[in-house]
Amino acid sequence: MDAVHGLQRQVAGHDRILHPSEAGMDRWALFVNALRTARARAVGGGRVDPPDGLLWAALDRLPVGVFAVDPTGRIVLWNAEAARLTGSPAAKAIGALALDMGIAPADSDRAGQILDRLLAGQAWAGEFPVQGAGGRRAYFHSVPVTDDAGQLVAVVSAFSEADAQRRDETFALLEGLFENAPLGFTYVDTDLRYQRVNTSVAEINGGTVDERIGRTIDDVHGEPCGPQFSAVCREVIRTGEARQVRIEGRLWHGTGPHQVWRMNYYPVFGDDGAVVGVGDVFIDVTDAERATAELVAAADARDYQLTRYQSLVDATSAAVWGRDAEGRIVEDSPSYRAITGQDARTYLADGPLAAVHPADRPQAERTWQEAVAAGELYEHVYRMRTASGEYRHFRVRAVPVRRDDRVAEWIGTETDIEAEVRARTRLELLSRATAAVNRELDTERELQALADALVPDFADVCTIHLIDPLVPGGPVTGRRLAQRVESAVPLPHSDDAFRFADDHPFAQMCRTGQPLLLRHPLQGAQRWADTDELARWEAELHWNTTLLAPILSGGTVVAALAFVSWGDRPGHTEEDLVFVAELATRASAAVEHAQRFQETRRASLTLQKAMLSSPPHVPGVEIEARYQPALADLEVGGDWYDAFVLPGGDIGLVVGDVVGHDLGAAAVMGQLRSMFRGVAMDKAMTPSAAITRLDELAVLLGITDFTTVLYGRLHRGPGGALFTWCSAGHVPPVLVLPDGGHRLLTEGAGLVVGVDPRTPRTDATVRLPPGSTLLISTDGLMERRTADLDDGLELLGTLAEELAHLPLAEFCDGLLARAIGDTGDDVVVLAARLPAG
Question: CB within 8 A of 706, min separation 6: which ones?
Fold first, then answer.
């Protein structure tokens, strides 16, 4: 490079010499300008005096071969690199004919044509193999040069054995892919002449490859299809854009069979960005358009093959890089650096992992080393920092290139899949958010569940606002219902209540009912933050986008979703705006459902409170009752209790459980409770007779087909207190004895109510010692998913023993607080305690 700089100084005052690294410039112009300063003067035998000292030193030290020929085709300039690569020293080359320098006889005619073109003053750029020393193949570019002494031709060779080998291997891989593709694949130049045709073309359309190569599309096919193919190719060349068309007709000037093709034309670009030809990937869909649904499915499968193949073709537009057999970077990758914004020195020194997100870097490095060690295909997805500073998801794929059954190098691509990842993430989040809101029946809790489901995977902040009724022309007010923030920077304190001016974006969204995507900093609108503290927080975290979406109920905006992203998270897109609009729609349905539920809850609760009255106050017996619904917010179900004084002074105690946890179950419970009190008030009716009569009425009236009931009469007499009971499939009562022990009252059991009222029922009686506590409950208090009911009853008895020393009201509260049941069922507790003797 010092020699190049010296060359630049030597030719000061002439055309500007271009530094090889200048993007978009012809690097060969450097050597053209150098030759213009050579001022070679022909001497005897066609030899020339060497150029002046420093200039010649620069030319002789250039890392590429440089030579020139005079108008007769004899070599007049030959630097050291040209001598090394060709094996011909300058003493031998100077004065010799250029056509004698390592050109194979088979290529001599073509070389002569190129030389004639250059001597005529026409530039030629291309690749031409020249056999050099050691069997090397040299590739070179040529340009004509004119100096004061007459016409010279400068030919600058770009010799790189490693590049040529890599290119040959890559071409071999692509050639195999090209020839074995299950689809037709052709390539024509800008004159619409076939340059490449794979074997599948002949299999699909007939004829041979040789019948096409070098001939134009119209020459090969003629009417009616040739002009159609040609028209599309010309359009692709003119616009530089891919086209997908459907064409049908007969090939071979109308003599071939009638066919239908799906054609995928795409432009092929040269190094200078100009279109140099058109590629075509196509399939024959004739059968698919004629056949039945079974053949249509087969066509879809072939179309899937096309999609996969086209994806592989598209991959050539992604970043491409190469590494050595050990996975080390050995060459620059401009396409990779175009994505990351790295310069060549940084890329070669720090490697591609420097651009990978720090959180993804360890796994990316580990999996790459594992792939290199195994010599297997490598595929991985990570986030990579782009030139704009944001992180986007990329899929990296690398394949080992083998030579002699050993990995010689790796070729890989980096493809931006951010859109794909976002689409998949949005679907997953939509499912997660829907499930979250459907689990809750309280509006605030369901909206908080929504916010928790979306942060931090979708955004850094999710805030949900309840909107007050809108006032025309006035500010929009309300309160914050739910919020989730993902930030290491503490959120400044702010009240739940908010007020947005009429021209604020939030207010505009509420009035129009349309979702909004805002890109920060906002332009031409009031700042988002409503306090200086919040504004500083916004600036410190570098907000990039905000999404707003209204939540409707009955066609009115009742709430709003707000999402914020900041820092290196990619800003939200229009696709994300559609996503949050769908979220808001689902949240709207959930809000309306919750509102209807709350109305049902209030009605059910009113009904329930009217039916579950407080136990009576009876001298000499203490009675307490508790009810806990199946769901904390439901407050209604099918469990019930009742306690009343019978004619004659006995106390009736009853607990029932109707299957279900809704308004219907509550209604059935109310009917059974009222009927049973009427039946039980007959003083002569035993507990078993009372349940039998209830069973008869329930079946006769069709009220229930599955209800458990336990009814008992507490009798106090001179000999002490007796409890006589009968159970219709209900869990047994627990008797807690004064000495601290307990007993399960399992006798008197029978069939549930609503099945067969003819089934005989029996009563059982137990003496209640002074100071004992009788506990009757429903199975929600002790039933467990992972244990038998008997085990749950024993645990309940132990718990009742532990709490028996407490006053009866605290005893009941303690049972509910420490209930061992985990099924989420209703719970009824009815307890009676006799005074100590």
Answer: 658, 659, 752, 753, 754, 755
Of 394-398, 443-447, 769-773, give the range with the top mean pLDDT: 769-773
Please compute Rg for the chain using Cα positions.
Answer: 45
Structural contact between residues 251 and 208, judged by C-beta atoms closer than 8 angstroms: no
Q: Which tens digit of pLDDT belongs to each residue from 567-626?
A: 777 788 888 888 888 888 777 776 666 556 556 666 666 666 666 678 888 898 999 999
Give the separation between CA 796 and CA 818, rounded to whole angstroms: 10
* DSSP symbols for 626-652: EEE-SSTTT---SEEEEEEEPTTS-EE
Rounded mean pLDDT, 554-561: 82
Measured distance CA(98)–CA(77) in Å, rounded: 11
How far, in Å, CA of 420 to CA of 443, rounded?
33
SS3 736: strand
Which amino acid, 83?
Answer: A
Residue with tokens 């689990």: 439
Strands (E), 194-284: 194-197, 243-250, 258-269, 275-284
Beta strands 764-768 and 406-416, pairing class: unpaired
State how far Cα 605 lies from the chain centre. 44
Point out which residues pair with 500 in neighbouring strands: 476
C-beta separation of 382 from 392 below 8 A: no
Give the list of residues 6+ apart from residue 212 with CB closer than 8 angstroms, or none.
186, 194, 197, 201, 220
456 prior amide bond cis, ω within 30: yes
Give the Cα separation of 148 and 39 in Å (integer): 7
Residue-wise burial string across 484-503, b where 16 or more C-beta atoms lie within 10 A, e elsewhere: bbebeeeeeeeeeebebeee
Structure tokens at 97: 């004919």
List 711's β-bridge partners, or say none.
654, 726
- Residue with structure tokens 């006769």? 700
Phi-psi sector, 442: left (phi>0), alpha (psi -120 to 50), beta:
beta
Task: Report CA torsion sign: 590, 592, 594, 597.
Answer: negative
Q: How far apart are CA 407 and CA 618, in angstroms?
A: 94
Question: In sequence order, which residues have a C-beta less than 8 Å from that of residue 518 and are 6 or more positions away?
Answer: 505, 528, 545, 546, 547, 548
State the DSSP string of 18-38.
PPTT-TTS-TTHHHHHHHHTT
Render pLDDT for 334-350 as a digit per residue (tens, 0 to 9). 878 888 888 888 888 87
CA distances from 34 to 5, 38, 42 (A): 12, 7, 18
Q: Are 60 and 78 in contact (CB under 8 A)?
A: no
> Residue 588: which of 736, 717, 434 has the closest Cα?
434
What DSSP assignment string belongs to 767-790?
Answer: EE-TT-EEEEE-GGGT--TTS-HH
SS3 814: helix
pTM as predicted: 0.38
Nearest by Cα to 635 from 662, 596, 656: 662
Backbone angles phi, psi at 170, to 5 degrees: -65, -45
User: Is beta strand 734-736 parallel, antiparallel or unpaired with respect to 773-777?
Assistant: antiparallel
**For residues 115 and 385, what is the distance between their CA atoms, to the nearest angstrom?**
49
CA dist., res. 60 & res. 54, Å (int): 10
Half-sphere exposure of 88 (CA within 13 A, CB side): 22
For residue 528, the Cα-to-chain-centroid distance in whole angstroms is: 29
Output the six-digit token pair for 305.
Answer: 């093959």
Distances (CA, A) of 326 to 115, 336, 404, 410: 44, 20, 16, 9
Alpha carbon distance, N-terminus to C-terminus of the chain: 113
> Can you give the three-state secondary structure of 63-95, one letter per residue?
CCEEEEECCCCEEEEECHHHHHHHCCCHHHHCC
64: left (phi over 0), alpha (psi -120 to 50) or beta: beta
Q: Is the peptide bond before 63 cis (omega within 30 degrees of 0)?
A: no
Counting Cα atoms < 13 Å in the Cβ hemisphere of 580 gives 27
Q: What is the distance between the alpha carbons of residues 210 and 191, in angstroms, rounded to a whole number?
A: 18
